[in-house]
Amino acid sequence: MLRFFIIFCVLLIGLFTLEILQPVEKHVILPFTSAIADLSVWIVGLFDDGVIASGNVIRDQASGFGVRIERGCNGVEAVIILAAAVFAFPAPLRSKLIGLAIGFLAIQALNLVRIISLFYLGQWNYTAFEWFHLYLWQALIILDALVVWLIWLRTLPRPAMRGAREAADAA
């Protein structure tokens, strides 16, 4: 358990440090965030054609209301937490890569729901938007990373107990 905790903390510090480096932000985070905005607008466009994206901003053309997807709102931090937990846990590399890939998709899917719901909530009631944005959705995204990790743990093959294996071999 101590080994897991130390590796988890080292990975968290390393990945969060990497995320805030200017070249990483410029070449990875900002384009990724813009892609999230574009994907959000594409999804919204299936039922509301008056929404546009410009960089990391989603805007309603009729009302002028918009939301900016900033650092902390693109799901990257939750993915970093998940990645640190997955790679700190002793498991086969293949299982780790599959868990991270599925976890990334699960976190980003929920984050798209978050972005779109906040976009419409903000047009309806800005006070509710602030509360949901700052409190509810922040917690739910991190909780999503935890739930994905716990589900991933349950899919891992259980190590056979040495005594049980020796008894079975002797019989």
Describe it for me?
The protein is mainly alpha-helical and 171 residues long. The protein has one domain (2-157). It is 74% helix and 6% strand. It contains 6 helices and 3 strands. It has helices at residues 2-20, 22-45, 76-88, 93-124, 126-155, 162-170; strands at 51-54, 57-60, 66-68. Strands 1-2-3 form a 3-stranded antiparallel sheet, with helices on one face. A hairpin with a 5-residue loop joins strand 2 and strand 3. It is elongated. The two termini are 34 Å apart. The model has no long low-confidence stretch (mean pLDDT 90).
Order of helices and strands: HHEEEHHHH
How far apart lie the N and C ends?
Answer: 34 Å
- In total, how many domains does the architecture comprise? 1
Helix content: over 70%
* Structural class designation: mainly alpha
Quickly count the helices. Answer: 6
**pLDDT below 50 for ≥5 consecutive residues: which ranges?**
none
Q: Could you give a quick summary of the protein structure above?
A:
With 171 residues, this protein is mainly α.
List keywords for this structure.
171 residues, elongated, single chain, 3-stranded antiparallel β-sheet, 3 strands, 6 helices
